[in-house]
Specification:
Layout lengths: L1 E8 L3 H8 L2 H10 L3 E4 L11 E8 L2 E13 L3 E7 L3 E13 L2 E12 L2 H12 L1 H28 L1
Length: 157
Amino acid sequence: MHLSSRTDIEAPLTFVFSALTDFDGWERSALRRGAEVNRIDKPRVVGVGMAWSVKFRMRGKDRKLEVKVTTLEPDTKLGFFCHSRVVDGDMSFELMSLSPKRTRLVFHSQVQPLTLGARLFMQSVKLAKARVQTRLNQRLQQLGSEIEQRFATQAKR
C-alpha cells in the first residue's frame, strides 16, 4: 500500500533538513510517548546505515520494529526501511526549496504485508484509505508547524 503527502514549511531548506535529521530529538520524542528505543548500528555516526530497534504498544499489543536509514542526501532526501515480524516498509522525505525561506516536504511510504493477518489488516486500511490519508496529511502539517515554530524561535534570538 502506498501513501504520500506534502506540506509547505515557512523555514529554509537547510533548517528543515537539520530538524528532520535530529535523530536524538526523535529518539527522545519516542521515549516520551512510551516507546523503547535502542540504537543497534555499529558505527554510531550520522549517515546511511544508522539503525534502531523500537518497541511500542499499539492497539493493545506490544510491537517491535527495526528502522534503518537507507538514504541520506544532504538537503534533498532522507529514506528509511522499516521491518517487523508482519510488515516491511519504505519511507522517504524529499525536500524542495520553494524560496529562501520556504520549503516543500514530500513524504512517501510503501508498506508490504508479510503475513496473512497483515494482509487482512491492510485490506481494511485500504477500505478506509481516505480517512488514513486525511490523518497522514494532518500529521505532516503538524510536523511542518512544529518546524516553523522552532525556526521562528531561533530567528528571534
